[in-house]
Amino acid sequence: MSGPPPADSVGKAMKHLDLDGHDLPPSPAPSSPSNGRKYALATELVYTEGGDQYNSSSVPIYQTATFKGGPGQEYDYTRSGNPTRSHLERHLAKIMNANRALVVGSGMGACDVITRHLKPGDEVVTGDDLYGGTNRLLKFLSTYNGIDVRHVDTTSLDSVKTALSSKTAMVLLETPTNPLIKIVDIAGIAAAAHAANPAALVAVDNTMLSPYLQNPLDLGADVVYESGTKYLSGHHDVMAGVIGVNDVALGEKFFFMINSTGCGLAPFDSWLLLRGIKTLAIRMEKQQANANAIATFLESHGFKVRYPGLKSHPQYALHWSQARGAGAVLSFETGSVPLSERIVESTRLFGISVSFGCVNSLISMPCRMSHASIDPATRKERALPEDIIRLCIGIEDLTDLIDDLSQALVRAGAVKLTEHGFQALGEEETRGETSTTRQVVDEP
Ligand SMILES: Cc1ncc(COP(=O)(O)O)c(C=O)c1O
Ligand SMILES: N[C@@H](CCSC[C@H](N)C(=O)O)C(=O)O
Question: Is the ipTM above a cut-off of 0.90?
Answer without folding.
Answer: yes
